[in-house]
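Exercise (ungraded).
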Amino acid sequence: MAPSVSVIAQPEHTTIQLAKSNANSQNGQDVLEDYTGNYQFAHIEEAQVSRAMIKRYFNTMYERAVSDVVIIGAGSAGLSCAYHLGKTRPDLKITIIEANVAPGGGAWLGGQLMTPMVVRKPANRFLDELNVPYEDEGPFVVVKHAALFTSTILSKVLAMPNIVMMNATAVEDLIIREDFQGKQRVAGVVTNWTLVALNHDTQSCMDPNVITAPVIVTATGHDGPMGAFSAKRMVSAGLLKELGNMRGLDMNRSEPAIVNGTREVIPGLIMAGMELSEHDGANRMGPTFGGMMGSGIKAAVEALRIFESARIVDGKIVGFFFSSNSFSFSDVALLFFVAALPRVLCLRLDVGIFHGLASYSNVCPLRAASLDRDRRRPGSSVTGRSARLDQLRLRFFHVQCVQCPDSDSVTIDSVCPDL
Ligand code: AHZ
């Protein structure tokens, strides 16, 4: 139980009390913001500090053991993804895992340790959204210090109630298992304190922790001591034949290639930022950051697409709904063909009926229910107007054999059992 604290009246409109105070020092609990040598803090027990951190941190770990989205890496791509996703879907539990003590990746500086950050248009719109000022140079803009972008986006991301970040924590492995369709799916991350992860060669086995999530965004940067982590793991797990390897610098090719190529590289795993250059064999862009912002936002858009189309139970995808976004053009073309097939066959049946041909087999497997029940029996026949109606209906029936002596009468020889 925290001891009660009495706050000595402070002057209005300022937190700084310059006048000498008459602090009540009976129980040592008085606080005073006085910069003339009498500044007094509330008394505290050391264990209170420990408990305040432990309770919150481990509650977070407990709650986030099943997350909605895990973002691996808090560089410019990972943070841009977190911002867009967290803002668009405040209901999603988004957990960022960052191996370094300081989040931000390489975005604390521009190029060659210089501070200004160059962002090509139209990615300056993201800076507008974040309220990060810049100088306009025509095709690109310049933020006076890269840290202004990174500290701003970090503060906005961390202020979102649905986002938590665990830094000094490394993703050591991926959870890869069969999904409800029998396909290999990335279903979570395997984590450890980074200092532990860096010492597996010096200590005996130090087992990790896990976080499951239906969607993982990996944005671990290009190859380095930790970088391109998931791309490399895909290779060692046999899910990718080999790394494409980052190509030489070409700003004009690389930035659109990374943004447009940001995608779900294997079920459950969306890859963003420079990690994708290692996966795809794309060019690097060097010190221009619009591509990272665009790629992060595209990763968020891809994640949202999955959430719109998937049925998720306890952090696992158990099925998919139909959604216009979840189909490619070739999927739609295939569906159209499959849907049209029975009609094409039925057309043959109609033509056959009107030419008085004897019989057709297994023609139309659809819409059996629309045939009157008493006419679904073998041997039943109809003539006149009804026959014409039935001829139309028969386009959709699962009829094994139809006798058609003339265009005005239809006799059903036999009917499939499921009618
Ligand atoms: O610490 C890494 C960094 O903050 C973190 N990370 C890497 N492996 C991890 C792991 N677990 C947890 N196993 C991990 N975190 O991922 C972050 C990557 O940030 P980054 O700035 O290196 O990558 P980015 O893709 O966001 O931005 C790349 C910026 C570059 S590199 C480049 C060039 O070389 O040409 N140009 C630009 C703009």
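Further reading is listed at the end of the chapter. For now, observe: The chain has a mean pLDDT of 82. The CA atoms of residues 186 and 275 lie 17 Å apart.
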